Amino acid sequence: MFPMDPTNPVLCLASVSPRRRELLAQIGVPHVAVGADIDETFLPGETPSNYVTRLAREKALAIRRTGQQLPVLAADTTVVVDGKVFGKPRDQAEAVQMLGELSGRAHQVLTAVALADLHGVADRLSSSTVFFRNVSQEESVAYWKTGEPRDKAGGYAIQGLGAVFIESLSGSYSGVMGLPLFETAELLRAAGIEYWRVGRSGERA
Predict the structure, then answer these.
(1) Helix (H, G, I), strand (E, B) or coil at 147
(2) Residues with Cβ < 8 Å from 194, sequence gap 6 or more?
(3) How many CB atoms lie within 10 A of CB 184?
(4) Active-site amino acid positions
């Protein structure tokens, strides 16, 4: 983690997700965070990759339209099984159903990241494959009662208690968390925004 001057942000993150904020801090990007409220309805005929990319772009542009002068970074994550998109579970029954469908098989995690600035909006897409061990219904209910799955796409958190379900991962760990750092860094470099910023002392942590 890098020491950063919070009074001198170089970026606005269109999310109040603690996980995304931690990931940006991990690569030394001072930022402010503002939640983006958009319609997340899946459009008829839309593919999962087009869906997450559209939402990431719309979030970034929505915050820019509020008058935000800083470049705006936004991301959106979804879990896909057999072409079916899993968002955040509405209740215990839906969470248990989701975990039941993920149990004992591979699924895809798509995270799109978009950066909007004076020059327009650019985006990147991260795709990862996650393989779950078998998860019983009783364990799914117990996991729901921890509170962790409530705001997570697919009903689980790879960086939290849900890590015990994951047998293997092919792709981006940070992408499954919700902000793929490789793709994010590509967008930042293209926009001339520094990461690995140093503290006032000039020394990295």
Answers:
(1) coil
(2) 10, 29, 188
(3) 26
(4) 76
Task: Give the global pTM.
Answer: 0.90
**Residue 56 · residue 76 · CB < 8 Å:** yes
Alpha-carbon gap, residue 204 to 200, rounded angstroms: 10
Residue 133 corresponds to which tokens in the numbers above? 């061990």
Q: Which two tokens stand for residue 124?
A: 């990147």
Give the tens place of pLDDT for each residue, 122-180: 999 999 999 999 999 999 999 999 999 998 989 999 999 999 999 999 999 999 999 99
The full set of domains in the chain, from first to last, is 11-190 (3.90.950.10)
Tokens 């650019």 sit on residue: 122
160 token code pair: 């939290």
Q: Which amino acid is at 17?
A: S
Q: Are 137 and 100 in contact (CB under 8 A)?
A: yes
Q: What value does the CA radius of gyration of the chain take, rounded to a whole number of Å?
A: 17
Distance CA(128)–CA(110), nearest Å, equals 7
Please give the structure tokens belonging to residue 9: 């942000």
Report d(CA 13, CA 179) in Å as an integer.
11
Q: Among 52, 157, 51, 179, which residue's Cα sits nearest to residue 98?
A: 157
